[in-house]
Design goal:
Layout: E1 23-26, H1 31-42, E2 47-51, E3 62-65, H2 71-78, E4 83-86, H3 96-114, E5 118-124, H4 134-149, E6 152-157, E7 160-161, H5 166-177, E8 180-183, E9 190-191, E10 194-195, H6 196-205, E11 216-218, E12 225-226, H7 227-237, E13 243-246, H8 252-262, H9 267-276, H10 299-316
Helix pairs in contact: 1-6, 2-3, 3-4, 5-7, 7-10, 8-9
């Protein structure tokens, strides 16, 4: 699908065949941001990691103080940048939609002022005709704000499988803690999970491609799966037998409390995630495959890799997560 940005790029994105791009990553401290900055640095791009606390930043790239609530700091941080990744969202906040709307507008204004040639945004899958949850509607609103304001490439994903992903951690905790799961109906909703390595390939793959500006791409693994199927695969990999019994009487509110009770996720995040789990999020548009040369990892392979990383982190006593 194509979206024509209202504002023409003031600086063309850097072609993959030209010099390395000067890249900024907003959300560099998050689960996806950490992996992306490592990849971009490995690819030879000078990376600026935008963070509210540069003194605490321990990831790849050069940390620079920037806050989406501080327009002046954003303008300074994006000056002279070729490509800016926007990976910010406020899921754990009760007023996340309002906060994300304001942050996206501030980032777009700063990117335009700085002459950024390409903004790359990672949003969520989901059909807009399917009564999207408030969380997914907010992600889509941010996408539209960026596309309408600055030269943007938008990617849409479902669950990203990797150690540090909130959704993945919830899945693991449910499987580990409940031998018998009396679950909400959303366990039968289909989603199309993607391995973190594949998501990073896609995010890095659109960098500096002028033909990707103004475009929206859907990314995912090779097949749609229900949440129930994913939990059973994880249980098998952990060597545990799990009985999953969906019931019709768990409302979204009760379901949120159930998730909060069983897992470590906070209530605001639980409510937003549960609302989204009622939406089918699968890939219908495969145009990204012609741009990024890769064979996507199966869910089982991605889960096996993520479980190994999770086990190593827990053994070391590190919390991880985002």
């Amino acid at each position: 699908m194509t979206h024509h940005a209202a504002v023409e790029p003031s600086r063309s994105p850097v072609s993959p065949t030209r010099r390395p791009a000067r890249v900024a990553v907003a959300g560099a401290s998050g689960f996806i941001g950490r992996a992306l900055t490592r990849r971009l640095c490995a690819d030879g791009h000078p990376v600026t990691a935008l963070t509210r606390h540069p003194e605490r930043y321990a990831g790849a790239g050069r940390p620079v103080s920037a806050d989406v609530d501080d327009a002046a700091s954003l303008r300074r941080a994006l000056e002279g940048i070729d490509v800016a990744y926007y990976l910010v969202h406020s899921l754990a906040e009760a007023d996340f939609a309002e906060r994300d709307r304001a942050a996206a507008k501030a980032f777009a204004t700063a990117a335009e002022a700085g002459g950024v040639g390409q903004v790359v945004y990672l949003g969520g899958l989901g059909d807009e005709r399917d009564a999207l949850s408030e969380h997914l509607r907010s992600r889509r609103e941010v996408e539209h704000i960026l596309l309408d304001s600055v030269p943007t490439t938008a990617l849409r994903a479902g669950i990203v499988i990797g150690d540090g992903s909130t959704s993945w951690e919830i899945l693991c905790q449910l499987v580990q803690r409940l031998p018998v799961m009396i679950t909400p109906r959303w366990v039968n909703t289909r989603t199309q999970p993607i391995a973190i390595d594949d998501a990073i390939d896609d995010l890095a793959g659109v960098l500096g491609r002028p033909g990707c500006v103004g475009q929206v791409y859907e990314i995912g693994g090779p097949e749609p799966l229900t949440y129930r199927r994913m939990m059973l695969v994880v249980a098998h990999l952990l060597g545990r037998h799990r009985l999953i019994v969906p019931v019709p009487f768990l409302s979204p509110r009760l379901s949120s409390h159930w998730l909060r009770l069983i897992t470590d996720v906070d209530m605001a995040t639980a409510r937003a995630l549960v609302d989204s789990m009622t939406n089918e999020v699968i890939v219908h548009d495969h145009r990204i495959d012609a741009i990024v040369d890769r064979t996507p990892m199966t869910f089982e392979a991605a889960a096996r890799r993520a479980l190994a990383a999770r086990s190593a982190r827990l053994a070391s006593g590190s919390r991880g997560g985002s």
